[in-house]
Design brief:
By secondary structure, the chain is of the alpha/beta class. The chain has 16 helices and 21 strands.
Length: 494
């Protein structure tokens, strides 16, 4: 029995209905029945053609710390039903107080390129335990995957230029900001302005200065001189407080004085006006003055589309500061990840696949214990992803049936190289996988993106990468849809 209070416990970070269902499973003797759930999303965000998986390490941290603290139990004891009676009986609360996770978790590594309907997480174990984790797992994976994807788009538009994440001031609260900084780094950002994210996750921190610095002095040259004196090794001058090109001249003057004292101006920052024209003018002025290595940083409501446009206009910006639109996932505020039951074990220990029907075929869940197999061509380029059911042994040669259209089929020969993307993370409640560094995850994102055709990665009307069900699984799903419909029809006639 856990008798310790823990005011930092996140165990109650769940929807009430998970606990009411858990109570029901417990009361009906089903708590220990084994089940398998899959966490997946149904469409890539931002009308894009790919998604970057993120959030796994925070999920593992959440699961490592998962236990009902005594103050969690005390709170649950206060909850009442409509009749004023306690919602949960004491024996159930006792059960929760003693609960230790004994689940298995398989997951796709952070920084992997993923596609709709592929399970990012597969949770297997007691149905009660699987159920009470649903909301928190979705909360963590949905947001970080969304932001890592946005960051991958923004950084790919920047074509190798550094992107600095400047979002903290307009992020969705404190945790939203920290999680966004982490995910943005995974997606490809070079640094964050968020110092706590730097401390917590080891992300490089970078920054310039604000207009207030310039405004607090009598003149811009005085402000730049004072800044140069303060930190001669970190000088990016914000030049647009009064007149941008005049500001560039003042920055050049300050840069010359820095040189005389043995230091180098790092660059200038533009934060308003026509960023293409101003950057071209500023570059010319800096080069003419002998500051060919000075960076031109730009910020001001940037996103992947504006960066792409500015590049096309010939902007000479070399560092991009991107805040609001990155950390708030403009213009898609959420990834629609879901968590669905795939199979349940019967009393004899046999796995029974489960399905949820929907009016829309694409929303009908996929039954089974799923795994994702990614096939490659001889150049290491990903060619097709196959979702298969581990309850149905597959032979070497496979047929992949497209998810959207069952008439589209891809034959795979046994010798085709592949990776199975779901990797064992937790066995019987214990983490069994090593945690990669954030740096390694960030590198993985870039390596992964190189495995996909540019047509899949483009922003507008991207080419649809092929994802399908292994043919046996497709047959099982079709069969189950027909049988379930038939059963529903018979029930409605009774
Ligand atoms: N050459 C350009 N092409 C397309 N969009 C640009 C270009 N230059 C700047 N922008 C974008 O246009 C938007 C408006 O910029 P602008 O500086 O005119 O207004 P602002 O944000 O109101 O300025 P301020 O920060 O001074 O209030 C910003 O999102 C900016 O990034
Ligand atoms: O535009 P974002 O992508 O969010 O990048 C961060 C912005 O935050 C800062 O200024 P702030 O917006 O606070 O004030 P300003 O617009 O008046 O410069 C900075 O100068 C950027 O413009
Ligand atoms: O360092 C900067 O220039 C910065 C940091 C946060 C937001 N905008 C700009």
């Amino acid at each position: 029995m856990n008798t310790t209070p823990d005011s930092n416990s996140l165990t109650l970070l769940t929807d009430l209905y998970q606990l009411t269902m858990a109570y029901g499973y417990w009361k009906h003797g089903k708590a220990d029945q084994s089940a398998v759930f899959h966490l997946f999303f149904r469409s890539s965000p931002f009308r894009g053609g790919y998604t970057i998986a993120a959030g796994l390490e925070p999920v593992l941290d959440f699961l490592r710390a998962f236990r009902f603290a005594s103050d969690d139990i005390d709170y649950l004891r206060t909850l009442q039903g409509n009749d004023g009676q306690p919602l949960f009986e004491p024996a159930f609360l006792q059960y929760l107080a003693e609960l230790e996770l004994t689940l298995d978790l398989d997951a796709i590594a952070e920084g992997t390129v993923v596609f709709p309907h592929e399970p990012l997480l597969r949770v297997r174990g007691s149905i009660l335990q699987c159920q009470i984790l649903e909301t928190a797992l979705l909360n963590i994976i949905n947001f970080q995957t969304l932001i890592a994807t946005k960051a991958a788009r923004v950084t790919s538009a920047a074509k190798g230029d550094a992107v600095l994440e400047f979002g903290l001031r307009r992020a969705q609260g404190i945790d939203g900001a920290l999680a966004a900084s982490r995910a943005a780094y995974i997606g490809g950002c070079a640094a964050t302005s968020n110092v706590l994210a730097g401390k917590r996750y080891g992300i490089p921190v970078k920054g310039t200065h604000a207009h207030s610095w310039v405004m607090s002095f009598d003149s811009e040259p005085t402000a730049f001189a004072a800044y140069a004196e303060t930190m001669p090794n970190n000088c990016v001058f914000l030049v647009d407080t009064y007149d941008t090109l005049q500001g560039v001249r003042h920055a050049i003057d300050a840069g010359k004085r820095l040189r005389e004292s043995g230091h180098q101006m790092v660059g200038i920052r533009l934060d308003s006006g026509d960023l293409a024209w101003l950057s071209i003018e500023a570059r010319r002025m800096l080069d003419d003055a002998g500051f060919q290595n000075a960076a031109i940083v730009a910020s001001n409501d940037l996103d992947e589309h504006l960066i792409q446009s500015l590049k096309l206009q010939g902007a000479t910006i070399s560092v991009w500061g991107v805040g609001t639109k990155l950390v708030t996932a403009y213009d898609q505020p959420a990834l629609g990840g879901v968590y669905k039951l795939g199979a349940i074990q019967d009393a004899a220990g046999n796995w029974q696949p489960k399905i949820k029907l929907s009016e829309q075929l694409i929303k009908t869940s996929t039954p089974g214990v799923q795994q994702v197999r990614r096939y490659y061509d001889s150049n290491g380029q990903a060619t097709v992803d196959m979702i298969y059911n581990q309850l149905q042994p597959i032979s070497g040669d496979c047929t992949v049936v497209a998810l959207q259209d069952a008439t589209h089929r891809t034959q795979i020969t046994a010798s085709t190289p592949y990776d199975d993307l779901l990797i064992p993370m937790i066995r019987n409640g214990q983490v069994v996988a090593d945690s990669p560094s954030l740096e390694d995850i960030r590198n993985r994102t870039q390596q992964q993106l190189q495995q996909f055709d540019r047509t899949v990665l483009r922003f507008d009307n991207p080419h649809k990468y092929r994802v399908g069900l292994e043919s046996e699984l497709h047959e099982l799903k079709s069969q189950m849809v027909l049988e379930t419909r038939q059963r529903a029809k018979q029930e409605s006639q009774q």
